[in-house]
Amino acid sequence: MDSGHDLLIIFKFIYYHNSFVAYVLSGRFLQTEKQASHYYSLQAGNGGDSMKHSAVVVTMSIVLTALLFMECLSPPSDPDDPMNVEVSLFFTDSDNEVTAGNEKEIGIEVSYPEYIDHYNLRSSCGDVDTEFTFLSEALRDTFHLSPLFLNEGRCTLSVVATLQDSRINGKTDSISIRVLAGDPFLFFSTIPMAFTTHTGRTDTLRFGVTSSKNANVNYTLSCDVELDSNEMHLADATDDDSAFIYFNPEQPGIYTVTLIASADDLSDTVPVLVTVLASIRPTESDNPRTITTGTTDTLIYTLTPE
Q1: Alpha-carbon gap, residue 171 to 108, rounded angstroms
Q2: Is 255 inside a domain boundary?
Q3: Residues 64 and 98 in one domain
Q4: Which of 117, 109, 113 is nearest to 84 (CA)?
Q5: Dihedral angle at the C-alpha atoms of 36, 39, 41, 43, nearest 10 degrees?
Q6: Which residues pair with 282 in a beta bridge?
Q7: Owning domain of residue 10
């Protein structure tokens, strides 16, 4: 135990114990003048009741002593010991319900984050598991995340904080959330970023789709520049939650590729900007020749568009 903490506990024990005994023996705990008068008369003339009162005082003193002793045995956790790391999950709005198709903000609180290497957050909703992994930031003891909940029912959120010292087991905590049924939804959850490519290359664009009607999702592809099916088309096999576009224009330029996902009366549209550059190849302008060691020569190349 820490010596400074021990001295503080001893001082508190002596002070509160003596104050409590003096308070009880003085009779000031009695609320009315009549009670006080009766109390002092008992003290003066009734030895049996006085002994009973003394026994009460002794009993309460023992209880107080035990409580203070327990505090002395429970000093603050040592910040230099990674075994004292604790992690907990909580809802930022103290409500454990969310409507399907929406995000829910949760918090992760950890003591002594400097000992944490990374965190794993898992969402288990029925037979669907989703896991997030992110590195620790040593100076942050509270994190906020907003997972997306899609499946109606009871979900369990669990976190594992993996310590830098692999000999120590990870610290865990879990909470549960109820996902309520809501209106049908459909939106693009994964969208390709704008990118640059070149002619002669085939790029694959993946669009992630989240919908409560996966089996009925249809896709419509368009581009602001007219392209034939060899230059741009949807993949024949499309996953329930993804659409793939093959993009291979023959001419350089700036293209806006637009994909529309629809299901019944639901739809979402997303454009992607693609810059296509002309491919170039180096061509040696000088005839092949042999050079000897110790001499300096110059090789000239020109870049020719294909």
Answers
A1: 12
A2: yes
A3: no
A4: 113
A5: -140
A6: 303
A7: 3-72
